[in-house]
Each structure stands twice: as structure tokens, then as C-alpha cells.
Amino acid sequence: MRQPTAEPSHTVQPDVIRYFPLPLFASIMGLCGLALVWLKAAHLWHWPAVIGQAVAVAATALFLLYGLLLLLKAAHNPQGIREDWRHPVRLNFFAAITISLMLLGTAYQSFAPGIGHGFWLVGAIGHAILVPVMMHIWLHHAHYQLTHINPAWFIPVVGNVVAPLAGVGYGHLEASWYFFAIGIVFWLVLMTIVMHRLIFFEPLPQRLAPTLFILLAPPSVGMLAWLKLDGETLDAATRILYGVALFLALVLATNAARFAKVPFFLSAWAYSFPLAALTVATMTMAHLTASRGLHTLALMLVALTTAVVLWLIVKTALAAAKRAIFLPE
Fold first, then answer.
1. Long-range contacts of 312-318 (CB under 8 A, 24+ apart)
2. Checking phi first, is residue 46 left (phi over 0); if not, alpha (psi -120 to 50) or beta?
3. Which residue windows are transmembrane per the record (predicted)?
4. Which positions ≥6 away from 36 have C-beta within 8 Å?
5. Residues ≥6 apart with Cβ < 8 Å to 286
6. Which of 45, 189, 220, 267 has the most CB atoms around it within 10 Å of its CB?
7. Banded model confidence at residue 142, pLDDT cuts 50, 70, 90
8. Where are the domains of the chain?
């Protein structure tokens, strides 16, 4: 008796691969930021260093997982990668990958510098290649509009200021100056464009509202990077950069009720790294100035940053369990 012919099988990729969202790499930046907060607390206040180290290791594991999922997406859904590359917002999160590597290198510098140096080198070289390519896209696009601009556009070019945080200690002084120069100059350029868009056009969509916190990152990280480059000297540039960061934090604080009403989106991870950067900057300023007021503020920010990151982890896990993350946009 003739057996029925089996139908050819078609492998259907899980949604976690087909629709893996690039903005998830912002969570790595947030975890690295929290690790740096606790490692700084260990250095300045003799808190347990193991907390920051554990967070850094967890961020590494998560980075490897996300990297694997992104590679699988590229292999099985290349059209999705092309769409990310053409998207006016998601494009910027390719740079979050290389920035995450530099941040891992920064976190590991205090307890595993050999591993950290490797992370930093791969991230810095990748970022040095990626950013000019992205700038080329910005300059020769045919589909961007001013309303597409939002603070996430800071990530690629302004992310350069992350490099000196560990680059100086690893012996890459001139490369660190190169990255810092790009980041600071283009922060001023993009800050002007972003403020023009925010003031004269309609408010950001709810999904992108948390990205306003990214405004905190350039002056906060810029201050820390400047200190590394300038020999840890409390000078006018340090005070100016920290003052700008503190002012922007106050502006955002006046909108706390608005942020509290925004439903959870993956963009909420934009709260994490900028808050962490401001926290480390405040801890550093408190130490350099011996200011009791700044010391108190630093303690409050450590608590706030830790609570926010824990909240983000819980909300992300719940959203993933409900299959609300790996969806087509």
C-alpha cells in the first residue's frame, strides 16, 4: 500500500528571534550604569564591591544572550535588520551595542581589567567604525523629518564620551581624546536640534517620552570623562558640565507626574543609564568638593537609580512573559 507523501516542513522562527527589538540593548547600558554606581560606592564609601561586580557579570550574560538573538535575527529575518537600519529611531540603538561593550570594559576595570580591556577595545573599535557610517546615513537620507528627532539620536555620536571612562586607564589616552572631542561637539549640535524639535513641534509620543532622560547622560558622562582626561582635577569645565546635568535633572523632576502616567514601554530603559550617570557624577562631585549637600543627594540618587533599575527588570520580565515585547512594530 502506498504511503502518503509527507508535506514539506517549513521552519517558523520564534517571535523572540524574528522580532528581537534592538532597544533591549539599552537595558545592558542601564545594568552597566547600576554596576558603576555600586562600584563607585565601594570605592568612595567602602560599600560591598561584590554588588557592583555581580551586576556587571549579569549584564555580561545578558549581553551575550541578546547578541546571540540578534545574530539569529540577522540570519533568519534579514529584512527585519534592514528595517531597523532604515528606521529613524531604532537605527540609533545599533550604537547601544558598542557602547554597552565600552561600559562593560569600564565596569570590569576595577576587578578584572584583562577581560575589561578586551571588552573596551572591541566596543571602541566597533563604535569608531559604526558612527561615521551612521553619520553618512543621516547626511544622505531621503526619508527623515524633523519630527523624527528625539533624544535617542544622542546615542551614536554623543556615546563617544563613554570611551574615556576606561580608555585613559587602559592606556589609550589619544584615542580617548578623539572620542571625547566628537561626543562633546556633537552633543552641542544635537542638543540644539532636539530642543528646537521639542519646543516648536508637538510633544513626543508616549512611547518615546522616557527618552527625555537621555538628556542627562551627555553632561554627566562628559564630566566624568573630562576628569579622567584632565587628571581628576576639579576645574571650571567639571563644574559647568555637572551644573548642566543637575539643571536638566531638575527640569525632568518637574515633569515627574507626567512620566508616572506613561505606560511601560521598552523605551523606559532610557531612565536607567542617564540616572546612573548623574548618580556617579554626583558621587564624584560630593567627594571632590566634600559637600554634605551633594553627599546627601548622591545617597538619594543611589537609592533612586537602584529602585528604578529593579522596577525596569520586573516590568520587562512581566512584559516578556505576556509576549508583549517580541512583536512587530
1. 312/27, 312/30, 312/268, 312/269, 312/271, 312/272, 315/264, 315/268, 316/27, 316/266, 316/269
2. left
3. 20-39, 45-72, 93-111, 117-139, 151-171, 177-196, 208-227, 239-257, 264-288, 294-314
4. 52, 103, 106, 107, 276, 280
5. 294, 295, 297, 298
6. 220
7. low
8. 15-321
Between CA 172 and CA 117 the distance in angstroms is 10
* Residue 279 in this model has a pLDDT that exceeds 50: yes
Which positions ≥6 away from 244 have C-beta within 8 Å? 219
Q: Grid coordinates 528604578 are at which residue?
A: 308
User: What do you get for the CA distance between the two ends of the chain, in Å?
Assistant: 50
* Owner of C-alpha cell 562600584: 39
Residue 291 above 70 pLDDT? yes
Distance CA 67, CA 60 (A): 10
- Rounded to the nearest 5 degrees, what angle is found at the Cα of 161, between the Cα atoms of 158 and 166? 150
Q: 17: which residues sit within 8 A by CB, 6+ positions away? A: 69, 72, 73, 76, 77
Q: Cα(237)–Cα(162) distance, rounded to whole angstroms? A: 17
Alpha carbon distance 9, 6 (integer Å): 9
Q: What is the pLDDT of residues 7-53, one digit of tens each?
A: 443 444 678 888 899 999 999 999 999 999 999 999 999 999 999 99
pLDDT of residue 46: 96
For the record, the C-alpha cell of 244 comes out as: 548642566
The string of DSSP letters for 267-324 reads GGGGGHHHHHHHHHHHHHHHHHHT-HHHHHHHHHHHHHHHHHHHHHHHHHHHHHHTT-
147: left (phi over 0), alpha (psi -120 to 50) or beta: alpha
Position of cell 515627574? 256
Q: Give the C-alpha separation, 198 to 78, whole Å.
A: 34
Q: Hey, which of 17-26, 299-308, 319-328 has the most confident mean pLDDT? A: 299-308
